[in-house]
Design brief:
Blueprint: H1 3-30, E1 47-56, E2 61-71, E3 77-80, E4 92-95, H2 100-135
Length: about 140
């Protein structure tokens, strides 16, 4: 298999995985302040993502793919707000287990990983172009 094509496949798999990670982070941040709708109801539960290595036997390269999108089992926090429609008999409301600071760190890391894969893709594209120029 063409090694330059392999570079593009590896980079594309990384960009796809990090793009999915950024979507999960965005969903988590958008729901960070959510609560249940009725007394005792659970709010939005933070989503997590894992990655897996995948061997492309035809190309002979290892790529990355999204393994699983799961739920964070960390407990919900309680906020005292007796006037809230989802308050329990003690006046506490369950609040989402999303930590905006953690999500911002995840967003930054995913963004940097995406950019690194984009740079790899561009380097492969440039090498291919230079190789074509040499063959002329």
């Amino acid at each position: 298999m063409d090694p330059l094509k392999s570079i593009a496949q590896i980079a594309a798999s990384g960009m796809h995985a990090q793009s999915t990670r950024l979507q999960i982070v965005a969903e988590n941040v958008a729901n960070a302040d959510s609560t249940g709708n009725t007394p005792g109801a659970d709010p939005y539960r933070r989503k997590t993502i894992t990655f897996e290595e995948v061997l492309d036997e035809e190309a002979g390269v290892t790529m990355v793919k999204v393994g699983e999108i799961g739920k964070d089992d960390k407990p919900f926090t309680l906020r005292h707000d007796p006037s809230h429609p989802a308050a329990d008999e003690n006046g506490f409301v369950k609040v989402s287990n999303v930590s905006p600071i953690l999500e911002m760190a995840n967003m930054r890391e995913a963004s940097r990983s995406y950019e690194a894969n984009m740079n790899l893709y561009e380097a492969g594209r440039k090498m291919r172009s230079e190789m074509i120029d040499l063959l002329k």
